[in-house]
Amino acid sequence: MEQQPGRIAVVTGGGDGxxxxxxxxxxxxxxxxxxxxVNDDNMAETVRLANADSxxxxxxxxxxxxxxxxxQVLAFRDHVTETHQEDHxxxxxxxxxxxxxxxxxxxxxxxxxxTFNVCWYGVYYGTRAFLPLLVAGEGGHIVNTSSVxxxxxxxxxxxxxxxxxxxxxxVKGFTEALVQDLRMHAPxxxxxxxxxxxxxxxxxxxxxxxxxxxxxxxxxxxxAFRNNAPxxxxxxxxxxxxxxxxxxxxxxxxxxxxxxxxxVRESPEEAYEDSFLARMTEQGxxxxxARADG
Length: 294
Description:
single chain; alpha/beta; Rossmann fold; two-stranded parallel ribbon; 9 strands; 49% helix; globular; disordered C terminus
């Protein structure tokens, strides 16, 4: 994006991955940034790194917040207005998300709903809380992170993925509907839906931690997910910000996302058949995505 000195940006899930990269890049462009996360140590590191990137005078603040809890999201909103002493913001990135148990039959209901609540209600509550602040300004952007699992509800034929996929489909549909709603009632505010493919983030480890798993239990899997990704979180954040600047309401992130989107559109009836996954595997860029957790 162009330099944005003095603009106020809000980022959920800013402690790691794409959220951290967004905070750093926004701060480097002169935005005043408030981030939230459930991991205080990760947030502190994000603020440290962003301070090193940002021009003098940039305001950075962090707030402990579980986005699946509306009261905490509203408290985060109040923190933002108090920190920046303004009644408006310019950018809201509803980025927080976790993976988790995927089966409606075998997964515990509480675990299933925890993933859904973070990935869907985190976006809904964030939009409810901050949209009035976007409307109050002269122009703004609300950027909601869905996934390729927002148009392909699968990790392959042997991996149920209902909770995360249902939430990401909801985010995609909600944001698409919001595009028209804003054009009618607040045309100075723009909605964007982000659909990343396999990005090198800490979602595997963070998701395990969200369900109480010891950090070392999934360390190898988490490292492989991050290190074998075809795109880094930093590059993904740059793609997202460039898409927002260009006014794209639909932002696909990664070659794998573009290819999978094309394949689903061309053969929707085949999308959940073994033959579809075989064609994915033939595409080198999709080999990791077929095994990813979101």
